[in-house]
Each structure stands twice: as structure tokens, then as C-alpha cells.
Amino acid sequence: MNKFEKQLEKWNRGVLRGAQARLAKALGVSTATTALWATGKRRPSKGYAEQMARLFGMDAFDVYKLFDGRSIVYPDVPTLSARSLRERRTEDCSYITQNKNTDADGAAEQSNSVQLPFLNTVPDESGRYEESDVLEWWTLPRRFARGAKYILRAADAGLKNTTPEDVCFAKPSADMPQGKLVLFRTPEGTHVCRRIVRRGQKTVYALPDGQTAVLRRPGRAVGILLKLVSQL
After folding, report:
1. Does residue 214 lie within any of the structural domains?
2. Residue 20's CB: how many other CB atoms inside 10 A?
3. CA 109, CA 103: separation in Å to the nearest integer?
4. How far, in Å, CA of 127 to CA of 32, rounded?
5. Same-domain status, 59 and 134
6. 221 — alpha (psi -120 to 50), left (phi > 0) or beta?
7. Chain CA centroid to CA 138, Å
8. Is residue 79 a part of any domain in this protein?
9. pLDDT in tens, 181-228
10. pLDDT greater than 70 at residue 83
11. Distance from first CA to last CA of the chain, Å, rounded?
């Protein structure tokens, strides 16, 4: 039993069974989310941690400590807080997540995992966002992230026929590469995705399913979708 589960048991009158479901109901999240917190596969956002502090009768800092070292899924990923990640963020919005091991020449080896913010809003092409926009930090294999800089709900990215559980990985970009699914912000402030198709000197903006294509640009390109993940 880890520190978070021990606190859950204490809060649930000494019974661990049913504690995750009770907490999920109190916070207004799914039981799958509290299960991921309990197993250390995800870490709660600052807002949820503060809500738990009120429920548990604890200081928010002490709630954060329940998850120290628990958001690590892969063994060589360093323990990083949201604050330290922000401090490590580079100008191009990439994240430095190197472990402490060194090779024979004394150079630091790059971690095979990254931590990405799950955002509640779509950033502009610079990728800038506010702390309040971060729902959670996810730890992922680098090969799985495929160069992504943030995670969005698929519906927020303008993808149709998706469920609330579907998410997509994206990176900020104003470019429109051939064949890529580009995220556009429309003049009305909504977001749509179009696949870029070059036909001679013309650029065609196709729907994700490729069945419909138009010549009119839907808005300002703000990112490129790299991966759609369904039913997490």
C-alpha cells in the first residue's frame, strides 16, 4: 500500500475498499482517474490536489507529498514537479527530462521518457499556456510521444466522432506539412483539423477522414496533431 492509498483508507473510515469511488464522486472525476492516481500512472493537477487537501483535512503541500516519486512510470525518469518542469521549459516549449546517469565520456544520457502537460485549452502556434490550463502531467515513453509538446482532448482539437476519453498528442507549429493533420484556429475562435494535400501549386484542406476537401483555408495554423489515443 502506498502513501496515497493509506491516506484514502484513513479518510474512508479505515476501509480502503470503495475509497477511490468515494473520492471520485467527491471530486467529480471518473473512477478511472482516481485509479490512475492510486497506481502512480498519473498525478493530480494542482486544483485536484487542493480539493483533496480540504477533504482530507490536510495542508496542500502534504497532499503533494503523497505523490512524491509516484508519477514515475519508467525507472529512469527523474522525479519532477510541475514547477521544476516549467523552470526546465525551453524557448521552443520542449522539456529537458534527462536522468542522472552518464556514459563513459561523462555525458548525460537522455531519458527514454518525457512528461507532457494535459491542457484544458489549445495554445497558439508558440505553444504558450498558463498554469491554470494544465489539468495533469503525464509521464510517457519518448517513442510514444513522438515529439509531442502537449496533450489535448480530441474534441477540443476539433476532431469529430470522438468520445470524452479520446485524447490527441500535438506540438505547436504554424507550418502546414504535406499529409499532416494540422490544427487550425478559426476566425470564430473554434478549432478544426484538416489534412494538408498539395495538388500542384494548390493546397487542399481535407477533413481528417479524407472524404471532403476544400481550397479555402479554415483559419490560422497553430499546431500539428501527431497521434490520436482512444479509450485510455
Report:
1. yes
2. 20
3. 6
4. 29
5. no
6. beta
7. 5
8. no
9. 999 999 999 999 999 998 888 999 998 876 677 888 999 999 999 988
10. no
11. 24
> In Å, how far are 6, 122, 161, 228 from 11, measured between CA atoms?
9, 36, 39, 37
Q: Give the pTM.
A: 0.54
Instruction: Determine the angle formed by the axes of helices 46-56 and 3-11, rounding to 10 degrees.
Output: 40
| Residue at a domain's end among 65, 84, 101 | 65
Are 169 and 222 in the same domain? yes
Q: What is the pLDDT of residue 128?
A: 87
Q: Output the domain CATH number for residue 124.
A: 2.10.109.10
Domain range enclosing 15: 3-65
| Cβ atoms of residues 19 and 8 within 8 Å | yes
Provide CB contacts within 8 A for 198, sequence distance 6+. Answer: 178, 204
How large is the average pLDDT for residues 15-22?
91
Residues with Cβ within 8 Å of 169's Cβ and at least 6 positions away in sequence, in order, are 116, 145, 146, 148, 150, 151, 225, 226, 227, 229
For residues 118 and 59, membership in a common domain is answered with no
Would residue 207 count as lying in a domain? yes
Instruction: Give the total number of structural domains in the chain.
Output: 2
CB 170 within 8 A of CB 229: no
Copy the grid coordinates of residue 46: 494542482
Distance CA 98, CA 109 (A): 7
> Are 140 and 219 in a shared domain?
yes
| One domain for residues 119 and 60 | no
CB 93 within 8 A of CB 27: no
